[in-house]
Design a protein that fits this description.
- The two termini are about 35 Å apart.
- Helix 5 packs parallel to helix 7 (about 200-210) and helix 6 (about 160-175) crosses helix 7.
- Helices cover about 25% and strands about 25% of the residues.
- The protein is α+β, with helices and mostly antiparallel strands.
- The chain has one domain.
- Strands 1, 2, 3, 10, 11, 12, 13, 14 and 15 form a 9-stranded antiparallel sheet that branches.
- The longest helix is centred in the middle third of the chain and has 16 residues, at about 125-140.
- It is built from 9 helices and 15 strands.
Length: about 375
Amino acid sequence: MTVAKVPRLPLLFSLLALMAAACMQLPSKSQLDAPPRQATLPDLPDYDDGAWVAAQGLPLRREWLKEGRTPLPDGEMFVLPFVLTTLPYKNAEETKEWVAYVNDRYNPPIPWQYRPERRRGHYKCMSLSASTVLDWYALDDGADLPAYRSLLNGATERGFDHRKLDALYYSLAKDPEKKGDYPLLYTYTDPIEGTPISYLMVGFVKIMTLGGDDTVRPDAIFEAPDPSLPGVTHEIHVSDLPPLRYSVLFHDIAMSRVAADPETYNQLLVSALETHGPVFAGIRLRFAVSGGIVSRTDIGRLSFPNVSGHGVVIVGYIRQKGRTYFVYREVFGEYDELWSGGGPAYRVYPVHSLREAYTFQRVKE
């Protein structure tokens, strides 16, 4: 998901190109989007390997993962309960048929566009990941997850309807007193819906924790019009939200700072996962958003230092040879491979690739 327009700085990009050409051979995109066809987890690259900047996380096969704590030959794996068994999958990828149906049924003022490129889809990673966190806490409370029809692709999904979170964000963005907490990006728009992008993670965090906010009535109902579809209104019942409060693990931390002291940030995430549950995290943006020639070169695949470009849910970690890597749930469906319906459901990253992270705790009754 794109969250900011990067200024075109020819000299800076030229220097970066020279550095990359001299120091780094980036693996091919196809190689990085296809996990090896082997039965066991392979050795992961070193923290400073070019694979981490060349791809948005390395894909994992679901069969390599196991809930709970699992010893490995040279380390261990930890995956939260429910993640592989009952936590529902969600998918940002549209279909050609659904886009045609939406345009015919709802006649949106900006007609939806079908984009055949995979792992692009709607720029709704923040709301999809936020709803997945809410689903995990509902499962942990023993609740049944309702079914709904996803407005992103027309499929039946389970859990908290992510569209409600997104609609409320857009609605709050129009409130003069609150819009600063819920900014929208107009420079780039959603590639399917043509709407401005709801990009601030903290805004979604505040919506997710309405159930634990003692200034909000527990029987309150928030109504919000759909950001794209005329005549569609969404309701969020505060009573349907788990009573959560949030803590900031880290925010707006320079990549170089994290890379110089990874264990400090590793421990923050490990402790949050083991103590509380899933972590809502932002992956650093890439230089590709600059457009033009840069976006079509290896430089475009490098991470922009201090902007979050993609929201995910961290659900576990892998320790190998003294290094720690974090497993996150993607928003492109339930797959191992990249294909026409979505992409790998799980990926892994070292901590320096993350710009911000939030953890949640239940509010005591």
